[in-house]
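A reminder before we start the practical. When you read a complex entry, don't treat the lines as separate problems. The point of joint prediction is that each chain is placed relative to the others, so the output describes one connected object in space. Small molecules and nucleic acid strands, if listed, are placed in the same frame. In the example below there are two entries. Take a minute to note the order of the lines before looking further.
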Amino acid sequence: MEYVIEMLNIRKEFGNFVANDNITLQLEKGEIHALLGENGAGKSTLMNVLFGLYQPEGGEIRVRGKKVDISNPNVANDLGIGMVHQHFMLVENFSVTENIILGSEPTKMGVTNKKDAAQKVAKLSEQYGLNVDPYAIIEDISVGMQQRVEILKTLYRGAEILIFDEPTASLTPQEITELIQIMKRLIAEGKSIILITHKLKEIMDVSDRVTVIRKGQGIGTVTTSETNPNDLAALMVGRQVTFKTEKGPAYPTEEILSVKDLVVEDYRGIAKVKNLNLTVRKGEIVGIAGIDGNGQSELIEAITGLRKVKSGKVWIHGKDVTGMKPRKVTESGVGHIPQDRHKHGLVLDFPIGHNIALQTYYTAPISKSGIMDYNKITEKAQQIIKDFDVRTQGPHEPARALSGGNQQKAIIGREVDRNPDLLIAALPTRGLDVGAIEFIHSRLIEQRDNGKAVLLISFELDEVMNVSDRIAVIHDGEIVDVVIPEETTEQQLGLLMAGHADKDKKGGKHRVE
Amino acid sequence: MSNRATNLLVPIVSVVLGLIVGAIIMLVSGYSPIEGYAALWNGIFGDLYTIGETLRQITPYLLAGLAVAFAFRSGLFNIGVEGQLIVGWFAAAYVGVAVELPKIIHLPLAILAAAVAGALWGFVPGLLKAKFRVHEVIVTIMMNYIALHVTNALIRTVSEGGDRTERIFASASLRSEFLENLTEFSRLHLGLLLALIMVGVMWFILEKTTLGFELKAVGFNQHASEYAGMNVNKNIIMAMVISGAFAGLAGAMEALGTFEYVSSKGGFTGIGFDGIAVALLGMNTPLGVIFGATLFGSLKYGALNMPNAAGIPIEIVEIVIAVIIFFVASGYIIRLLLLRAAGKKKEAK
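Here is the predicted structure of the whole assembly.
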């Protein structure tokens, strides 16, 4: 068998910490090879070794059978290895072509020759069915398109081997389907792909073989057609994983959150939430299902005081909190796991301990008459790190250094630990692995069982169906229907989310008010 | 190479490289670098008098550096330290000449006046930034010009047409006989003590208070700070006010210590602008500001001796000093080179 890339017994250490221990990955020509592991298992480290960003302490790398020393990313480029990063490396106000040629601009008599480059980009785009406009400006195109620009960037530089790092993390279901087609097209054109992911469904859909790593150790390589999601999950986590979230029936009581005729506008003055009505009661989880951009973010921001309310009312515990400052809302008994953990959820340059204290830093025992007691922050942080299984070197490690899943666990720890009457969880499991998702879901259900109200916003149908007691479907800023998960199907939900409300359907009786 | 060794080596190598390049410049221009550096050394440490004067020169740099660093830590770029210093200078001098009071009241009052004037000058850009998102760099630069010309006009009014005020009453002066006697009658004054206390104050605010926690959070990430219920606008204004107060105190050093009067100015003092470099050299930490201010103050004062003692024109002297500071500021590059050299050595093994 011909291998285009062989990483043999790779070992990478950071101080005393072994990030990769004896990992072997062999990529065949023309295959899609998935690299599976939990958040922080060492997938990115391994790929950074291949891409020349890190030097391994042991093992060897062979490209097309020849031993190579990849001392920096330029060497990787020359060997035909291209990386499609999870967080796109694009200049927002440059065009597609300008981004692609950035760093190796072709010139004609000293002047950048964009025209020829644009033609080459257009040709590549057509060849691989990417449908990208070479002259479009990055900030004007969708996330899915931006990712294709990243793919084009590697192809333009002659990559034969493409590494996709968590490519579906920020894509819509539609875009994911298209991406899978693109990957298959790439293979058909003779490229080879390494797909870094922890999403089992994708692996089953698209990959030929899977290499699993767990806590830095290479577990082995299996052929996709000979395995199933349950076995893969067990290999990855090291124990059996339940996919169906276990939960008993809900016993909702009094109303905690009540939203009436809420109208919220975006910065351009266009209504994103239109006369929205919603209630969440003690002891239930209400899921908001909808396609990204239908007013979910604006709704949450309006409830939590981060965005102005145009008209309508928000009550928490019968208290009118409409238009109140975020702190007042928080102190009314609201916990908020924000949608964007890097923008709102964390101060990335602060230690993780400071971040855990971000909602309580001004209260006793941490702050007394304006003076901080940082020992109390450390104590609190250690407790939450332990209770919520945040994998970190300790409270003093910068939040930036933690993996996404552990950052999220710290945020959830911070919000849940305050025991809020209403917990708002916006995309709480975005980008996380099955183990972490399982943990977070069980925490949400635990809150519910303790008689708290939970409002869950998710773009993932599985999650909404599994975790919610009631599902409010949002479309174009309105709740178009409220359904019970057991009485509906994903197809029905999908139709509702797309705006095809069926007024005669039985589910209609569950509408709020 | 261990981290600690690198941290120690970087500033030393930087200064040595700066000195070498400075020497080359002097050589090329036809002057003796040995005589030049000897003059610089004597200008800084020559005798007790020069040491006293060097310390006096360091004092306003300390406070100007603190002002810039404090704003930086809160995510703000205070280019207005110069203007805040000028109004502080005037306010302190005015209180110093306008009334005569017991020293225990007069001196603190004059110092306070400087801090309040600087704080007020910082408040305006802070308010505009918080309320209307006007960039603080634009406003502070303009506030510098306003400060310069408004104080010049006020000085003319106060001195009835003259271009400097009377000398302040002794009850408002920072001068100390003890320090003067100690340093062969240099102008070293008690302001140095105040500046060092302020270094501690900045550290305390940032590292020990709840306000400091908020200021740093806002400096790093305004969105997350807002989410956490902090009043971002209040913190922006607070940061500018405190920064301005530090700058105003730098002005008080000149008004109550070095000169004991204020005269109308044809241009900026430069201390406020050098404060930016002082803060950056010190990586915006309180201790770092001491390092930056010491370097700046020593070189600036010591350089005055080079034209006299070594006959090097002041223009060349200023280039040499700039080169040395430039190399210290390029510590990052030197760190990189050191690490690379260490890496090569390791590979060779």
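Discuss with your neighbour: The interface with chain A takes residues 208-214, 216-217, 220-221, 223-231 of chain B (CB under 8 Å). What might explain this?
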